[in-house]
Amino acid sequence: LSLKPTAQDDDGTTEGLRRKLEPFDFEGARVAFKLHGERVPELTAWLESRGASVFEIPLYRYQPPPDAEVQALLNEIFSGDLDAVAFTSNTQVHYLFAVAERFGQADALRAAFAKGVVAGSVGHITSAALREAGVVRVIQPEHERMGAMIVTLAEHLRS
């Protein structure tokens, strides 16, 4: 298709993208944007409120694991068997806490991260999702990549 973006965020956030789009007139425009696993209803609503027809392009879809597997992870977190949990996307954060909430374990999950289990985050978007979920101790690499996260997490655990 050889599509080129008209505007791009400057910080990886929806708010950053909205700031870049602010000067544009969207009345009667058709706007397409690619999704990274989750819908962005606030951006869609903002564009539609400015007169745009919005087309979301899902690049991929997350297939969540069965609840039993997530419960097994939660049990390992609660038992102290894990020193850290690495998160590579905000979708993972949202799903883990949604399952914990369904089982009445969200407060226990936050407590486990507050006491001993370290939350490793691939970057600032994922870190923001962790903080929004109530996780205050988050380890994030300076260079927002998975390899850098693993190295940073390992260094933290060694110290």
TrEMBL record:
<dbReference type="GO" id="GO:0004852">
    <property type="term" value="F:uroporphyrinogen-III synthase activity"/>
</dbReference>
<dbReference type="GO" id="GO:0006780">
    <property type="term" value="P:uroporphyrinogen III biosynthetic process"/>
</dbReference>
<feature type="domain" description="Tetrapyrrole biosynthesis uroporphyrinogen III synthase">
    <location>
        <begin position="4"/>
        <end position="150"/>
    </location>
</feature>
<dbReference type="InterPro" id="IPR036108">
    <property type="entry name" value="4pyrrol_syn_uPrphyn_synt_sf"/>
</dbReference>
<dbReference type="InterPro" id="IPR039793">
    <property type="entry name" value="UROS/Hem4"/>
</dbReference>
<dbReference type="Pfam" id="PF02602">
    <property type="entry name" value="HEM4"/>
</dbReference>
<keyword id="KW-0456">Lyase</keyword>
<protein>
    <submittedName>
        <fullName>Uroporphyrinogen-III synthase</fullName>
        <ecNumber>4.2.1.75</ecNumber>
    </submittedName>
</protein>
<dbReference type="InterPro" id="IPR003754">
    <property type="entry name" value="4pyrrol_synth_uPrphyn_synth"/>
</dbReference>
